[in-house]
Amino acid sequence: MNDEELLNRILTKLNNFKAKDSKQHFNILKWFNRLVSFALSNHHPRNYRAYSRGQILKVDFGFNVGHELGGVHYAVTITKRDSTRSGTLAVIPLTSFKNKKINNYEVDLGPEFYNHVEFVFERLSREMFQSTISRQLIATEFESFESEFESTKILVSPEIRNKYNVIFTHLMFDVNDGQYVSLDNIKRKLDDQLEFYNRMIIKNKNVMDELKFMKPGSIGKVEQLRNISKKRIISPLNSSDALHGIRLSKESMEKINKKIIDIFVFDKQS
Q1: How far are the Cα atoms of 78, 132, 153 from residue 69, in angstroms, in the given order?
Q2: Could you give the CA distance from residue 184 to residue 146 in angstroms, rounded to a whole number?
Q3: Is the terminal CB of the chain with fewer CB neighbours within 10 Å at N or C?
Q4: CA 120 – CA 50 distance, rounded (Å)
Q5: What SS3 class is residue 195?
Q6: Cα dihedral sign, 186-238-199-54
């Protein structure tokens, strides 16, 4: 069988499957597209991102066989000590709670994961609101400061600090009386603040978008424990991702530990 014959056979099977299950047919195409992308990249970095035990990830488990969990799901890291040199990671997939009885191979993790992400969103929203107000006040005050001082260096005194309290409280808080400050230095601090503010906006949007697809309850599918390539991880890949820093509590991880022992560790008498 040559390449063309094999490709035609695959296309025929795909068309037959599409008639039976169009949704799963589309899932196969998506996973096939991802596999081809993996093959084309063929990139094996020297260093990978290291993930902590208990950290929540979003993973593309692909199109799997039978009762093997497939598709995009959240997962919890169970690798004890991950390394930047390791390209694989042990995880347990998570599914949403569907108001049905939990089986003996699952762990009810409650709304902890959802609540954690929701808390991050609320905290970021508060910080953005406060930062927006302070940036507006600083911008207004800096216009007066810039028009008053034309020299490149300004000696900070209690009088100047009191007059431009917003600048020295929120921007130049590390400058003491008797020290010099320059307009260029203040402008650099303003640029740094703007960059931080823009990162905050991106992070807040990512968290908000993630919450739209989440449901309050989570189930740990412990029987589906598996090693995955880190290339399967969709998020978090950087600090602005919604899942960056999201981890389950020690109590939830202890539940998972006990269930792992129940399912996978032999009794001495067995």
Answers
A1: 17, 44, 64
A2: 10
A3: C
A4: 22
A5: helix
A6: negative
| C-alpha count within 13 angstroms, C-beta hemisphere, residue 80 | 1
Beta-carbon contacts of 10 under 8 Å, excluding residues fewer than 6 positions away, are none
> How many CB atoms are located within 10 Å of the residue 151 CB?
9
Query: Which structure tokens are listed for 200?
Result: 């905050």
Q: What is the pLDDT of residue 151?
A: 67
Token pair 């406060």: residue: 130
pLDDT given at position 157: 87
Question: Per the structure block, which two tokens stand in for 137?
Answer: 């006040």
Its pTM surpasses 0.85 = no
In the numeric block, which tokens belong to residue 269? 């008498």
pLDDT value of position 75: 97
DSSP one-letter string for 114-146: HHHHHHHHHHHHHHHHHHHHHHHHHHHHHHHHH
Spatial contact of 215 and 114, defined as CB atoms under 8 Å apart: yes
Rounded Cα–Cα distance for residues 165 and 1 (Å): 79
Q: What is the mean pLDDT of the chain?
A: 87
How crowded is residue 105: how many other Cβ atoms within 10 Å of its Cβ?
A: 14
β-bridge pairing 72-77 and 88-96: antiparallel
Reported residue count of the chain is 270
Distance CA 219, CA 259 (A): 12
Contact 59, 73 (CB under 8 A): yes
270 pLDDT more than 60: no
Token output for 34: 């991802």
Residue ranges of alpha helices (H) inside the chain are: 3-20, 22-41, 112-148, 158-163, 165-170, 183-212, 250-264
